Amino acid sequence: MEKYIVEYKEIGLYAVIVVFIGLVVGMLAALFGKVIILISNFSNSCSVYLISFLPLADLDIVYMYKK
Known about the structure:
Blueprint: H1 2-45, H2 47-52, H3 54-66
């Protein structure tokens, strides 16, 4: 009987750890989703300005590869 109590305590500890990890991963996933939404809203609202700087970004990338 004592052996089963120890096993149930170990299972309970694992359950608490799993719930904690699940909450942390869920919060990080929700934060990632919010950031993606904010970035896409910014991109949609400033698309004319962002498109005009694409050639400069391309030249910068080419410069870094040639370096």
